[in-house]
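At this stage, I wrote out one protein's amino acid sequence and its backbone structure tokens, and that material follows here:
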Amino acid sequence: MSDPLTVLIVDDHPIVRKGLRTLLLSEATIQAVYEAENGLQAIQIVQQHRPRVVLMDLVMSPINGVEAIERIKAIEPSTPILGLTAFAEDDKVFPAIKAGASGYVLKDIPPEELLQAIRDVAAGQSFLHPTIASRLMREVTQTSTPLDDSEQLTEREVEVLRWIARGLSNQEIAMKLHVSERTITTHISNILDKLHLANRTQATLYALRKGIASLYDDENIYYST
């Protein structure tokens, strides 16, 4: 049996926290919701309660969301963190992904899609809204030099990477390729190791930048990977 789905909301606006808490507690699969008004409180709550998912705003003090993500990942590397931002053009989006965030959502995301994003990251997947993905693609293109690391991947690993970027879970990829889920897990681990990437979100961005997958793939509405 999996651990109960518990969520930590980190935002310095009480009304935002209240609204999110009300929404999350309306979801039967979410058993507890914690709140923090800044990054330092968030770190303490993660240490005390080990929430399954963290919803992290970025613009806070005394430390911002990016630094809070870095500190939480240092304490609990397996804790998925879902960034919250009001604008796709937020200049902290890309640093937060690099710091280890499992995905990003806009604050005006429909409630059901936010709940799905939480379920996705809790299950070890990632979640990128297409608007955020477009923003990250521009950032990657402008700041990164071309890499040849993908040449190290086998044909099957490239195929798996393509399906990751197109939003399929490990189980769905296994069904597509007619192999076991354990085999897909091994492929993904090898892909991340070879490309020096931290998680599936970074793998998705890599696949998009290298042209292995397309941002406007018809199989995706949201980049849930």
About this structure: Residues 143-147, 218-225 have pLDDT under 50 and may be disordered. The longest strand covers residues 30-36. The chain is about 50% helix and 15% strand. Residues 181-195 form the longest helix (15 residues).
